[in-house]
């Protein structure tokens, strides 16, 4: 357990479904991130939140909708996804600042059918 | 963000030291050098970071060239559990980390 908890660990959803991924950290970090890792591709940064405010959206399609109600929780709401969205979705948190490391969760393995 | 260059893969024998190289010739004066690793079926794990001086922690050592255009992650005694993809990343003033392809490290028993 890294201190960043992601649920569910695995998710299978149809293209017309709506689902949400949850991320939780109690490390006292003020920044949270969503990354996507597709097969045989580097991790792609999707969204960045600092003190609950979104500071970066890396040209992510609107079928992915993030929500950060407080500094400890981060959600990724999913709707009308495509099969190519199947991937490992990773959440991370950090204290912020260049010298601070990221703590990652174990990820949610998403399969869109 | 400045780019880094790492070998695609490396092999090492168990219980021997491993030196993982990283080139970052376009590094700026304020970029920190971070290393992460990703074990199979897990999220990335922070290993070590530094700015100018060499750094040691319980996991590894980081040797930074004097001109900061390259660095080396040193695993002092590799075990089978060290088999992973190792990422060398430069972290600038923006609050984000961009991952490259990393080096896949194979440990031979």
Describe this structure in words.
The complex is a heterodimer of chains A (113) and B (109). Chain A is an all-beta fold and 113 residues long. Chain A is 0% helix and 58% strand. Chain A has strands spanning 4-7, 10-13, 18-25, 31-37, 44-50, 53-57, 64-70, 73-79, 87-94, 102-104, 108-112. In chain A, strands 2, 4, 5, 6, 9, 10 and 11 form a 7-stranded mixed beta sheet that branches. Chain A has a 4-stranded antiparallel beta sheet with strand order 1-3-8-7, with no helix packed on it. Chain B is an all-beta fold and 109 residues long. Helices cover 0% and strands 46% of the residues of chain B. Chain B is globular and about 40 Å long. The mean pLDDT of chain B is 93. The A-B interface holds A 2, 4, 31, 33, 35, 42-43, 45, 48, 50, 55-56, 90, 92, 94, 96-99, 101-107 and B 30-32, 34, 36, 42-46, 49, 51, 91-93, 95-102.
Produce the secondary structure layout.
The complex is a heterodimer of chains A (about 110) and B (about 110).
Chain A: E1 4-7, E2 10-13, E3 18-25, E4 31-37, E5 44-50, E6 53-57, E7 64-70, E8 73-79, E9 87-94, E10 102-104, E11 108-112
Parallel strand pairs in A: 2-11
Antiparallel strand pairs in A: 1-3, 3-8, 4-5, 4-9, 5-6, 7-8, 9-10, 9-11
Chain B: E1 9-13, E2 18-23, E3 32-38, E4 45-50, E5 55-56, E6 61-64, E7 70-75, E8 84-91, E9 103-108
Parallel strand pairs in B: 1-9
Antiparallel strand pairs in B: 2-7, 3-4, 3-8, 5-6, 6-7, 8-9
